[in-house]
Design goal:
This protein has about 375 residues and is of the alpha/beta class. The chain contains 13 helices and 15 strands. The chain folds into two domains: about 1-250, tm_1862 like domain (pyruvate-formate lyase- activating enzyme), CATH 3.80.30.20; about 300-375, Orthogonal Bundle (Arc Repressor Mutant, subunit A). The strands form three sheets. Strands 7-8-6-5-4-3-2-1-9 form a nine-stranded mixed sheet, with helices on both faces. Strand 14 and strand 15 form a beta hairpin. The longest helix has 26 residues, at about 320-345. The structure holds iron/sulfur cluster (SF4).
Length: about 375
C-alpha cells in the first residue's frame, strides 16, 4: 500500500505567515495541469505498482481548481495507478472557495475527506494573517461540505497570534468543538523568514506572543480537545476515535509515497526525491521532456534513523523499539537508548511496552529531546 500527494501551487493571495511554496500567478494553470498529468504518467512505476491507499491534494490552494480540472487529473490517476484500495481521498480547501456544486462535484470523483484552513474564529485574526475568508464563510463551507455528503472534515487552527489572549484562543477551541469536526490540526505561529509577518515583527509592528504564553495555549489546546473527545495522536494533530488522518500517518510510519507537482517530495524507502519548487520551470522541464525536474538523495542508514526518530517521536504511540533494532542496527538502537536515558530519568520520555514516547511534559520540549536522540557525525 502507498500514498500519493498532488501539489496545487496556486493561491489567490499570499497569507502573511506563509512559507509554503505557492504562487499567486494562475495564467499557466492549464499548462501546469498538463505537466502534472505527464509526471503522473512518467512516474507510474515509482511505487512499484503498490495500490494507493491514500490520495491527498494539497497546496497552495487545490480548491482553486474547477471540478472539470479535478476530473482531468483523476483520469490520469485512474489510468496509471491502482486506486481500487483507496480508503482516504483528501482535498485541502479555503472556506471561501467552497460551494455546494464544487463539493458535490469532487465528492462524485471520490473525495471523502476535506481539510479546511480555518485558522481562527475571529475576523480580526483572519485579517492580520492576510486570510481571504471570513468566519461566516467557514460555517457556510461546513454546511456545503456536509450537504454534499462528506462527513470527514478536518480544520487547521493557528495559535500564538500577535495580540491573541488565552481567552480568545479558548473561544476558538470552543467554536471548533461546536462545529463537530472529526479532526483538528493546530500549529503555533512561526515567523518564517521572508513572510510578511516576520518582516512586521522585525520592524516592531507586531509583537510575537512569549514562549510561556504559547506553551499555555498548547496546554489549553490539549485539555479542551481531550475534554471534547479528541485523541492527540501526533504533536499537532487531534482526531475523534478512528478518524486519524491515514495520509499523514503514512508519512510518520515510513510508508512509501509519491509526490507529484512543483516542490512535491517523494520517498520510496531508500531515497528521497523532491521536485523543483518553481511552477514555471517545472512546466518547462516537463514540456521539454527533461528529467532534471527533481533531485534525489540516497538515504544512508544514519539519515533514515534520524527520520525515524523525528517522525515516530512526534506520534503519541512513539517509537517502536523492536523496529528500531531490526531496521537500524543494534549500534543505533544502543545509541538511541543511551541518549534517551537522561530524559527517561527526568520524566520527559517514557519507555513502556516496547515503545519510547514523549511524556506529557516531554511534549512541551519535544524539539530538544528529539534532536538529542538524532545521530550527529
Ligand atoms: S492559502 Fe495556504 S499556501 Fe496559500 S498563501 Fe495562504 S497559507 Fe500559503
Amino acid at each position: 500500500m502507498a500514498s500519493l500527494y498532488i501539489h496545487i501551487p496556486f493561491c489567490e493571495s499570499r497569507c502573511a505567515y506563509c512559507a509554503f511554496y505557492s504562487s499567486t500567478y494562475r495564467g499557466n494553470k492549464a499548462d501546469y495541469l498538463s505537466a502534472l498529468c505527464r509526471e503522473l504518467e512518467l512516474r507510474r512505476n515509482y511505487l512499484s505498482g503498490a495500490p494507493i491507499r491514500t490520495l491527498y491534494f494539497g497546496g497552495g490552494t487545490p480548491s482553486l481548481l474547477s471540478v472539470e480540472e479535478f476530473s482531468l487529473l483523476m483520469e490520469s490517476l485512474r489510468r496509471y495507478y491502482d486506486l481500487s484500495s483507496l480508503e482516504e481521498f483528501t482535498v485541502e480547501v479555503n472556506p471561501d472557495d467552497v460551494t455546494h456544486d464544487f463539493v458535490a462535484g469532487i465528492a462524485a470523483l471520490g473525495v471523502n475527506r476535506i481539510s479546511m484552513g480555518v485558522q481562527s474564529f475571529h475576523d480580526e485574526d483572519l485579517r492580520l494573517m492576510g486570510r481571504r475568508h471570513s468566519v461566516a464563510q467557514v460555517y457556510s463551507a461546513v454546511e456545503a461540505i456536509r450537504g454534499a455528503g462528506i462527513e470527514n472534515v478536518s480544520i487547521d487552527l493557528i495559535y500564538g497570534l500577535p495580540g491573541q489572549t488565552k481567552e480568545a484562543w479558548r473561544e476558538n477551541l470552543a467554536k471548533a468543538v461546536a462545529l463537530d469536526v472529526q479532526h483538528l490540526s493546530a500549529y503555533s505561529l512561526t515567523y518564517e523568514e521572508g513572510s510578511k509577518l516576520s518582516r512586521l515583527a522585525k520592524r516592531g509592528k507586531v509583537h510575537p506572543v512569549g514562549e510561556e504564553d504559547c506553551a499555555d495555549m498548547f496546554a489549553l489546546l490539549r485539555a479542551e480537545l481531550a475534554q471534547a473527545g479528541f485523541y492527540q495522536y501526533e504533536i499537532s494533530n487531534f482526531a475523534k476515535p478512528g478518524m486519524e488522518s491515514k495520509h499523514n500517518s503514512s508519512y510518520w510510519d515510513g510508508t512509501p509515497y509519491l509526490g507529484v507537482g512543483a516542490s512535491a517530495h517523494s520517498y520510496d524507502g531508500t531515497s528521497r526525491q523532491w521536485n523543483i519548487a518553481n511552477t514555471r520551470l517545472y512546466i518547462a522541464k516537463l514540456q521539454q521532456g527533461a528529467d532534471d525536474y527533481y533531485e534525489v538523495e540516497q538515504l544512508d542508514l544514519e539519515t533514515r534513523y534520524n527520520d525515524f526518530v523525528l517522525t515516530s517521536l512526534r506520534t503519541r504511540k512513539g517509537m517502536d523499539l523492536a523496529l528500531l533494532e531490526e531496521g537500524y542496527t543494534r549500534r543505533l538502537y544502543d545509541y538511541c537508548l543511551k541518549n534517551a536515558s537522561k530524559y527517561i530519568s527526568e520524566g520527559l520520555l517514557i519507555r513502556e511496552d516496547g515503545f519510547l514516547r514523549l511524556s506529557e511534559s516531554g511534549l512541551f520540549v519535544s524539539d530538544g529531546v528529539m534532536s538529542d536522540l538524532m545521530w550527529v557525525e
